[in-house]
Amino acid sequence: MIIADTDILSALAKVGRMPLLLSLFNATELYITPAVFSEIEHSFDLGRQYAIDLFAMLSAGQLRIAYLTPEQVAFRDTLPVTLASGERESIAAARSRSGVVLSNESRVAHICREHQVDCLRLPDILRALWVEKVASNMDVEEIIRDLASRIVCASSNLLLMQFL
Q: Which domains does the chain have, with CATH numbers?
């Protein structure tokens, strides 16, 4: 099960590259938690295009909500409150479902490692797109440029360096 956090979804949706995630994981659907849904819903209510695009994926069944069990809620509540609720829920859902968390937050990756949950950050995803031949090296470089131009990203050069 692939569980995506808001930061990855919004970044790739802003540059129109969400279908690449489905291709990369050879999946027909990705999962989000209720808190991630709420974050996207807030942006949808503000009329942000990327959120409208993500809602279209929800309607098409390409994004599905992974509701937490009581046990997952209990585990979520043990995670640091310095993480956003979507991040905590994503880790909790992935942990008990042998899932992979997609998040670009280094602290999320750190907590995932502590709890033996697989986590892929944006540089990992971009590299995998190229290595798995889902996108060419030039396509991935274009995605990085698009991300840098569409998103306030002080570390876009670092992202490019991590990819190369």
A: 2-121 (3.40.50.1010)
